[in-house]
Specification:
single chain, 12 helices, alpha/beta
């Protein structure tokens, strides 16, 4: 009997203190009361749960009517501090209408709730009345004609009928997407926070977007108007594309080379865009000046009509520039017609940029990427080096490339036809020989007799100083 009584007392105590919470109901031990002002009950009833951040922290002790609404007394656990700056929302926990109160703090700072505090009605919310919602839905359905509603239902069945597996995959994919989004919630929040500048840019450019939409509407309207032509283009387009492809195939391999060259030309055009624009600006003016010069005396009585020309050639004024080029012994004979490789190095007039020699030469070419700088090569334009002349260009005797700057003079590569290789055979030395004035016979330096008939007394042709420049005629 003693064991039975002891077990009974323990069971009753556990049930009374743990499950029933008699100390709380009788004496309020471990709990404090907070009054929640509600506009309506919203289905809330006594003994309903009270949650804070999704965790149960108390129960609804009572729900009572007042002159302005409903007061719900909440019994909250004393061990859970709840901020006083919060919102209280009445929600339905299940489909059968089990209501509970959810406490949602606005911030974690400030004071906490204490016994006797009141949550005002402007901080409380209740779910909408299900009866009003059902009545509004019923009125909306009744407003739809019966035949139209039946058509919608039939068409809906036709649209999704038999698509159970596909809809199941859509639902599963949506669930997986939601789970992944939950896993990457921080990244999504960061993306949302940082999307504000993009949205602001859309707002700031609303006029441009509106204009783009208007232009797009114009284009689509023109396409609609020109529908026959567009249809013909779509019909004949594949055949034209096949012919174009066949033409491109026949142009191989010359077409790729041409296109590649055009790409290089395009790069040059981009680099010299400013110069080309200036040329296009000045070309009409230059043509008009030329036309004006040609019509200087068109309506006059002069015998000569047209532009005035001056034949003052000013030869060798200024003299030709010889500084910076190959030495004289390495220069090609002007009568050669072959085309050997260009000598290595840069060959141009290397005198000061303000010298009067070859003022339009390579040394004064403007640098496209560095305005104000002039250099003979693109490499010097892009570098920090400046042009350094060899000399002033007035060395009229001696080596024209003589300089104190230490710059290298381009030379032909060893072994080339015009390079300074082993010295060639020297011409015979100048010698003095006695000749017979009667016949013009003399003994040459090689010991052989020679006869030059124009040296004889009875020469038929008249001799002059120019004839002395001609080579002798051997017999």
């Amino acid at each position: 009997m003693a064991i039975f009584i002891t077990g009974t007392l323990i069971a009753v105590s556990v049930m009374a203190f743990h499950y029933m919470g008699l100390p709380n109901y009788l004496f309020g031990v471990g709990h404090y009361r907070v009054t929640l002002n509600l506009p309506t009950a919203g289905g809330l009833y006594p003994s309903g749960n009270v949650t804070y951040r999704g965790t149960e922290v108390g129960r609804v002790e009572s729900v009572a009517l007042t002159d302005g609404g409903v007061n719900a007394v909440l019994s909250l656990n004393s061990g859970v501090p709840i901020p006083a700056d919060l919102d209280a929302e009445v929600h339905s926990q299940t489909a059968v209408g089990e209501q509970f109160v959810a406490l949602r703090p606005r911030s974690g700072n400030g004071p906490v709730l204490e016994d006797g505090d009141v949550i005002p009605v402007d901080r409380a919310s209740v779910p909408p009345d299900i009866n009003s919602l059902l009545a509004a839905t019923n009125r909306g359905i009744q407003a739809i004609p019966h035949d139209n509603l039946k058509t919608v239902i039939d068409e809906g069945y036709t649209a999704v009928g038999g698509l159970g597996p596909e809809l199941s995959r859509v639902v599963k994919g949506t669930t997986s997407l939601a789970i992944d989004a939950r896993t990457n919630l921080d990244s999504l929040i960061t993306l949302t926070d940082q999307s504000q500048p993009v949205l602001d840019s859309q707002t700031d450019t609303s006029d441009s977007i509106r204009a783009w939409a208007a232009h797009f509407a114009t284009v689509t309207g023109e396409l609609k108007t020109q529908d026959p032509a567009v249809s013909k283009l779509l019909t004949d387009g594949p055949g034209a594309a096949d012919e174009t492809r066949a033409l491109v195939d026949r142009l191989q391999p010359s077409l790729p080379i041409l296109l590649n060259n055009l790409v290089g030309l395009d790069d040059v055009g981009i680099t010299y865009r400013n110069d080309l624009e200036q040329l296009l600006v000045l070309l009409p003016e230059g043509i008009s000046i030329l036309q004006g010069a040609g019509l200087a005396n068109r309506d006059t009585k002069q015998a000569y009509k047209g532009g005035y020309l001056s034949f003052n050639l000013n030869l060798n004024l200024p003299p030709a520039c010889v500084t910076g080029f190959l030495p004289a012994q390495q220069q090609r004979v002007p009568t050669d017609v072959d085309y050997p490789p260009r000598p290595a190095g840069d060959l141009y007039c290397r005198v000061p940029q303000d010298a009067p020699f070859n003022v339009r030469g390579a040394r004064n070419i403007p640098c496209e990427t560095k305005p104000g700088k002039r250099a003979p090569t693109a490499a010097m334009c892009e570098s920090d080096k400046n042009y350094v002349p060899l000399n002033d260009g007035y060395n009229w005797k001696g080596d024209p490339n003589a300089t104190l700057s230490g710059q290298a003079i381009p030379q032909l590569p060893p072994g080339s036809a015009d390079s300074a290789g082993p010295p060639a055979a020297l011409p015979p030395p100048i010698a003095i020989a006695q000749y017979d004035p009667t016949t013009g016979t003399y003994i040459g330096p090689d010991g052989h007799p020679y006869t030059q008939s124009d040296l004889a007394r009875d020469a038929s042709q008249r001799q002059s100083w120019q004839d002395m420049l001609l080579p002798p005629k051997g017999q």
